[in-house]
Every structure is written in C-alpha cells, then in structure tokens.
Amino acid sequence: MSSEVQAMTLAELAEQSGLPGRTVRFYIARGLVPGPTKAGRGARYDGAHLERLRQIAQWQGQGLSLLEITHRLAGPESPPPTLVPTSWWQYQVAEDVVVSVRGEVAPWRLKQIKTQIMRMTSGLSREEKEDTL
Amino acid sequence: MNDMNQSFTVINPKTGQEVPLAMEALWLTGRILPVGARLLVAHTFRSQEQNPLEVVYAFGLPRDAALRRFQIVGEHFRVRSELKPVAEAQKDYETGISQGHLSTLARAYRDGRINLSVGHIRPGELIRVFLEIVAGVDLRDDGLRFRFPFSLAPCYHRDARVAEVEPGVGEMELPAEEFGDVLLPRYMTDTSTLHHVGFELALQAGAAVTAVSSPSHALRVSNVNEPTARVSLSREKDVPNRDLVLDVQTRADGARTCGGACRDGKARFTIVVPSLAFGPSGRQPKSVVLVLDRSGSMAGVALDQAKRAVEACLGTLSETDQFGLVAFDNEVESFRPALVGATRQNREDAQRFLSQVQARGGTDLAQAIQAAAQQAGPARADLFVVTDGQVSATEDILGQCRSAQARLHCLGIGSASQDRFLTLLARETGGVSRFLTPSERVDLGALELFASAGQPVASALRVSFQGLAGAQTVLAPPSVVFEGHPLLVMAQAPAAGPGELRLDWGTGSTVGQMRVALELAAGDDAETVRLLHGARLITDCESQMAGEPDGSGMRKLSDRSRSRLSTKLEQLSREYGLASRAMALVAVVERAGDDASQLPTTRIVPVGMPEDVTFERYFQAKPAGGPALLAAIERQPIIAMLRETSVNHFKAATRSEIGRQTLFNKVRAYKLESDLPKGETSDDKLMALAGQLLPDGGLPGSTDEERLVRSLALLLAFLGAGHNARSGAFRLHVRQLVKFLTSRPQAQIPNEFSAMIPVFVAKAEAGETLPGDLSERLLIFLTTSSNDSIMERFCQEIGKLA
Lengths: 133, 802
Prior knowledge:
The structure holds 2 protein chains of 2 kinds. Chain A is mainly α. Chain A has helices spanning 10-17, 21-29, 47-61, 66-73, 107-132; strands spanning 88-94, 97-102. Chain A has a two-stranded antiparallel sheet with strand order 1-2. Chain B is of the alpha+beta class. Chain B folds into 5 domains: 16-250 and 578-589 and 599-608, Sandwich (Immunoglobulin-like); 256-278 and 458-530, Gamma-adaptin ear (GAE) domain (Immunoglobulin-like, Sandwich); 287-450, von Willebrand factor, type A domain (Rossmann fold, 3-Layer(aba) Sandwich); 622-675, no CATH class; 682-801, no CATH class. Chain B has 22 helices and 38 strands. An 8-stranded mixed sheet of chain B has the order 5-4-9-2-1-15-18-17. The model of chain B is unreliable at 1-10, 550-557 and 621-678 (pLDDT under 50).
C-alpha cells in the first residue's frame, strides 16, 4: 500500500484500517491517535492516522496494553509518569545465554514467557548435544 | 420509575470536586415470574462536558437472557429501537454518529457481554435508555434465585492485556481477532465516584411466597401476601460492585404451569415440576471427580471453605465408591492419575493433597475438566466443579467440555460470578449448578450440591402430552432429574386448551410416571413465556458459537458451521424479536441542530471491582524486588515475624519466582485469616467432623465402643442442627451414620444403646430434628473429650435431653 493516502473521513479511515469507527474514536479520545487534521465539518484523516492505527494493532498483537502503547508513543524522551524502579528477572537458559524478563508481568503472561524459555532451554541443550555427537 | 427523575451529583471524597459522570444511574425494574423475569433497565446519561460524548456501557447478561428492545428518551423525543443484523445495525449507528445524530446501539458479543453505545450526547443533555431484557432464573424445589449483574467481573483469558492505569483502576483488553471490538469497563476499587444502581421489582412467583431475602443487598419488601409482592432496595441507592441476588421462597405445592395463548393464537407454556414429586433417590455406587479452582481470584476464605467442603464431600463416600481430585489454575494438578477407591487410606492421602493446595495463577477450566474426565476413563463420571467461573471465551470451554463426555455439576462462587456460563456448562453436560455469594458459606453450598447431584431421582425421563393436539417441547428436556432441582419443561401447542403433561421415567424395576393436568387459557404471562423460550433458545445456540463472526471485517467468515449457526441465530432473533450475536438493536434520532462537524469524545462507563475479587490478582504488577517490595509488605505483620526468623530467608524467598509466589500467598493468607472471626461456628465443627467419616459411615475411634458413641453423638448433633436423612446439606452424612449404626451386630452394641439407636435412627429417617442446644453440647463433647469413660459422659449429655 502506498504511503500517499488521500485525506479520508473517519468512516473511510475505519474501513481502511479494518477497525470499527467506534474503536477509532475511542483511540482518539485516549490520545493514542491524533484528532483530525482539519477540524469542523470537513474533518479529515490521512496516512499518518492510518499508520498509527496499524502500529497500535501490531503492538497489541505483541501483547502490549493500550497503557503501554500510550507510554511507548510518548517516546523515550518523556519521563515515566512516576519514577519507580523496574525489576527484571534473569533466566539463564544456557551456559552462555541469559534471558531478561520484566518482573511486573501478569501471571498468564509469565506462563507464556516461561513456556518459551523452556522451549529455548531445551532447544539450546539439544543443539549442544548434537554438536558434541 | 420515580427514582429516575432525581438528579445525582457525585463528589470525589478525596478532592471534593464534582465528578463528571457519563452515566449517572442504572435502575432495574420489572417482573419476576416463577419461570423467568422480564426486566426494564433504565440507564441515565448526562453530559457535563464541553464536547459531545459517545458513552459505552458494558455489562454481562444474566442466565438464559436476551435483549428485547430499547426506548431512548430525551427532551423532545421518544424513539424505539429496531432489530437488525449486526453489520447493518453497526453501519446505521456509525452513519448516525458521523452526522451528529443521537445514535444508540445495543450489541451482544461473546460470553454474553453487551456493549450499549450512545453517541452524540450534547453538553448538558439528559438521555435515558430503557432496555428491556428477558432472563432466566435459578429454579429450586422451594422457590427460585434471581440474579442480575450490576457489575462485570474481570475474566481470565490467556491473551488478555491488562494494566493498572491509575492506582486502584484496572483495565482489560481482549484480542480483537477473537472478541471483536467489544469494550470492557475500567474496574475501580474505589466505588464512591461511580454511577448509582438500584432496583424495584414485582414478584409474581405463582405459589404463595413465604419469604424474600437477598444475600447481596438490603431489601424492602411489601405486599408479601398479595398476588404481586414488591421488592426494592431499602437504601436510596447503591454502588455497582456486586450482582443483585434475590431468593424467593414459595410453598412447595406440586407442579406449576405458566403461560397460555399468545397473540398469534399459539399456546406457549412452561411447567416446573419439583424434584420431590419424583420420589426419593436410590443409592448407587458413585464415581466422582472433585475439581477445585485454586486460581488467584479464589484466594482466601473461598478456597479454605472449598477445601473443607471437598473433605466433607469425600466423607459421604463408601468403599464401593470411587473418586478423583483435581486442583487447577493455569496448571492442572491431579491427586492420582486415575480414580481410586474411597478407602480410608486414599481419603487421608487426598486430605494431604488438599492441604497443599494454594491459590495462584489464572483459570484454565477446560484443561482441568479434560484431565478430570480422563481420570474417570470410559465410565461416565460426575464431575463436581467448584469455581468462580471468571473466564473468557466460554464458548470454547463449553465445546471442550461437551466432548469430555462427563456430567458436570458446578458450584459458582463470587459476587459477580459467571452465572450464565456455569449454568450452561452444567446443563449442557447433563448436570446441575448452584451459585453462592461471598456472604454465603461455600462449604455448605458445595455439600448441598454434592448431596443433591450425586443421586438422580429420575433418569431416562420421557416427556409427552395428551389432549393438547400438536403440543411439543420447545427444547429437549433433560433426561435426568436431581434432588432439589426441579424439572423445567418448555413447550408450545398450536392452540390453547385443556391437556395433560405425561412424565415417564426409569427402566426395568425403577420405573415411575406422573401426570400433570394443564389448563391453558389466554394470559398476561403467555407473551413473557414466549420471550423466555426465545431467550433460552438463543442462549443455547450462542453457546456453540466460538469466535466472533462480527461485521467489522476483522475476522473473515471461513468456518461453514459458524455461518450456519449465525443463520440459525438470525432466524431465532427474527422469530422471537430478540437480539443476539447475529442481530443487534439500533436507533438513530435526528434532532434539530445536529452538528456533524464535532467528533464526540468516547467514554467507557467504569464499574466497581466485584467486592470479593482481589484487584491485585488481575491488575497490579507485583512489586518484584528492591525498595518498593519492602515498603509494600512491611505493613504486613507477618513480615516482622519473618524478619525475626531470618532476613536471609526472606531474601532467598524473593529471589525465585516460586519463592516469591509462596511468600505472597503467605502474606495474603495471613491477612485473610486475621479477618476471620476468632471462634469456630457449629457449622465449622460439623463440617470438620463430616470430613472424618470413614467409608463404613462411622466416625473413627480407638475402640468399637468409642466409634459407636462418637457416631451416635454426631448423628444427634446433625439432627440438632436441622439436618436429617431427608433434608439439610449434611443429609448424605446422616444417611451414612444411619447405615453405620444399624449395621452393627446386635451383640456388639452395649445395653445402654440398644434401645436408643433405633429411636434416633427412626427420627433421622422420618425427617425429624432435635433441639439446637443439644447439638452445641454434643459438638463440644465430640471435639474436646478424650476416650476416658466416654460412654458415661455421653449418657450424661443425653440425660440432660430427657
């Protein structure tokens, strides 16, 4: 899809992004997506809006919540809302590999992560064995 | 409806500022019939902001419920909704919003969740939406339990994204590819700034109402002895942090019929037949698997009581019975890989297994049920599931459980437990369900369910009609009837008239039959009964519909069976005039001066965190180390204790994930235990003793004499507490004790007892009880006495009775 997108109405933006209009309005109200480029009767949206919606969907697919996306969109320069230490857990999956996982994850997310780590651990140890054979 | 006219102002106690509420109040009115309810829910929206608003209110449907229609009322208009296919309704709504019109959409999503969206509410404008809902009720032999969700519990889903957006405010998002564009509310621990809720309901329970009560809300009840009793909130208003639960007790008086001729001339009716009418149940060897939810949301008293209840349930088993035990969160742990005999040794091992069960993690119900069904093997076992049912994607779970080939009985726990889902889960697998609120005892509830569901009063049930030409059931009635759970027959006939319902059941030597005379005429209730039939059919159909076949274009319809279900659902919606996941309700009001140029600000109405659900379980990131951790837990007295023992131990414990979990569980358990009342109640003692019954039905003891004395004392204690062989949560234990006491060879029974035992056994079997203070004294005797001269002391206690 070309990045040269004509100015769109909200309905067209919704259709292009595959999201219902209500969702788009909700994102705008939450400050995740900027308001229309032209206010008033001829309110229009452009490629930047579409790109932002796609970016949000992609991040959501990675398991980010709207709150985390808000922080991410605010950019690295902006200070976190409150200065609190973040903790990371280190899992040594092999002699020479360490995986860091943020301490504050929901239990079910932790389960997903652990499954992957287990897979990685066994994968690495299998390769090790294959190498030595 | 006068309550609706008052205007509310909400002040934030912390800031003293007025809080702008998008939705100010939710008021529940309507009628409750013996077979269901017809409700009208009034939502008051008012914009106090500078911009126009689009407000989304998310709520869950009660059991067997569907939306019928709504009316939207503003200063100069009153408009009714239209029922349209979802894609069309959504398009109407979007077009309306883009043109600045007042648009309203009520749309159903998975798990019975509804989004009511109202858009372009102008600054200062007052809008009311009156939403009509038909809903089922939890039927009992002696009345019914009605439940309406004032709050929405957060539900576990492996791909849910959760965040604590502000301290004490949680947010949950579900993956769109599975759940469509459903929006969930923010969950608030502080309920003081939320919209107000209340209710005023008419009660037409058919048989004379003997009592109306609520474990959830303070009630005002009037006109109890008249055909229509009225029930309302005794306070002016309440907060949305728990479901409304109403218990209606009626005089049990045989079968009740509701309904008659509808406007189209056809007769629609529902017959409720109490289980008592089928006679007593026979005892057959049991194969049971107890499935215990130990997910984090069960933490505390609920899990402790559930564990005790499981022990007490095991106490009703004989050596010929087989059992299994499964505890689950997002992992499943089984007591044994297969069912084991209910021997003393196995039960003691099971108790040890239970004592190690701790609350943690999410709720992976389907996995647990499959594991439990596997344990049972090819034999069709009864599975007893104790859970809060706080799960999403329930249709997937239902599908997996249907294929598990086991009968599920569900005990739902919680102030906003998923009534709708657990009802379906039990019904569709041929079992029964019960629901409890946090103020009720989980252990007694579990025991009650176990006692009634283990023993069917009728099986291989066949339903037919005589006299009413062309009469037939609307949906297949269950083939098994359980003690305490009445049979519900939904039926229709081409025309009203006199007739007869014929029930035949059993095979071989255990056959039975019953005839219920039907006198159908035109009646006010006929139309409601028709709607209730529709709501039930739609709920059943939706329960088979996994995924979200929504019109948003987010998921391509590829699955043929899903599209077949969609078509069926659309037909049902049209036939009964009820919304479903295929058909939504929409209204667009064009007002003078509608301004298309302004984009409304979208707001979601927040709800209160259900009062018994721990917020942290879902939303709060656990402080994982560093200063924050110490600061957070230093307030807990147990930490002081831990410090004294070993600071290093504490540090070590927090170093690993498991250690951290254990520590937090300890901290939480400590807090909850200290919240408990200090003394044990009689029910606690009875529950503990019930768990000690040996497979032969008696209490343990070092000598035969001691066993006999203690068992008789416990029998009397049960009788004194109102439990006998016929009724009461401990009825199975009473039966076991009777079996034990009457099976002793006459020679082994001391003289003092040989006359006494038959007297009390007869009382127990006749359904009689004894004075309550005797129970108290015997419980003290049973829990404190040593074996020294036990007989003499027991006789002294009994002597006081005479």
